[in-house]
Amino acid sequence: MSVPCVRVAREDGERARQDLAAAELIDDTHGIEHADGWLYIPVVDPVAVPDEFEVVDHDAPVRETQTMPAELVDFDVSYERIGDAAIVDEDDDERARALADAIVESALPVHTVLNRASKVKGDLRVRDWEVLAGDGNATETVHREYGCEFAVDLAEVYFSPRLATERHRVARQVQEGERAFDMFAGVGPFVIPFAERGAETVGVDLNGTAIEYLRENARRNGVADRVTAIEGDVRDVVSGSSRAQRSDGVREVAGEYEGWADRIVMNLPHSADEFLDTAVALAGDEAVLHYYDIQHEEDPYGPGERAIRAAAEPAYDVTVETRHTVRSYAPHELNVVLDVRLTR
């Protein structure tokens, strides 16, 4: 049976395999195959594959030695992995338990199964979970993504593995010596890879637990010397109405970041427009803004672009360099990003 595969030249195969494995996109139920001078790497989500790769349908061999959850239940299964935890979204208790048992019994390297028990809620963007399998610390795990490790407690912070490819797309644009500012940093999935590429980075978040994990992740990935983690409302941080503590324990006065940033990430898609004045205040003489938004499919980019221009012009020339759909968010709604260059 044909399955979606990334097709690459043999000499590029190992690099492609490593990139796809780091993003947890490789389909372990099928084998990687050489054919007709090409390497075919099966993938679980063709939509999430970076644009640099070609995705084709290919009759890849089925791995006979691994038992997967779908083989152990009589219904269609859906789950996602964060570290050694599997996330499911089942309203039916009996079906949820059966799926959890199947995941644990399968060949997946998973020890914890969590069922979404609420929507993301509140300013801290957390949700409730039902623990279907796992111990008392079941919501804490370590997620690996494109060579970085992220410790995270899903009950205390917001984290989405679905954005791995998008984060990698942005991180590849970062140059050594840049100054990068993530306005809603969470546990650091943008901040840490930016720092690994040699940028001086600042991450701000309202969630104190997320900031603690950001500091831990900076140490875990060996980039603590290039990461400043600040708990608070980014508007207060930039205006100078609060004090902050760096990840290395040094006290510093917030507000020193006006005109500081070469790159700014605004991944708060439901309300990023409310923070655009702060983003403009952060921008140096030239800065790239990564603005995430959720809009109707009829005009997914227009509202964000108009909001950015209203906040930045005439002090800055505004050039939209990329209009990109990250994923489908809901029926007729798209999660999109605008990469915008601001030039004073």
TrEMBL record:
Domain SAM-dependent methyltransferase TRM5/TYW2-type: residue ranges: 79-344
Q: Which organism is it from?
A: Halorientalis regularis
Kindly provide the name given to this protein in its UniProt entry: Methyltransferase
Tell me which PROSITE patterns the record gives: SAM_MT_TRM5_TYW2 (PS51684)
CDD domains (alphabetical)? AdoMet_MTases
List UniProt keywords, sorted A-Z.
Answer: Cytoplasm, Methyltransferase, S-adenosyl-L-methionine, Transferase, tRNA processing
Classification of source organism: Archaea, Methanobacteriati, Methanobacteriota, Stenosarchaea group, Halobacteria
| Taxonomy, superkingdom | Archaea
Spell out the InterPro entries in the cross-references. MeTrfase_TRM5/TYW2, SAM-dependent_MTases_sf, TRM5-TYW2-like_MTfase, TRM5/TYW2-like_N, Trm5a/b_N
Question: GO: which molecular function terms?
Answer: tRNA methyltransferase activity
Q: Name one GO biological process term.
A: tRNA N1-guanine methylation
- A Pfam family found in this protein is TRM5-TYW2_MTfase
Q: Tell me a GO cellular component.
A: cytoplasm
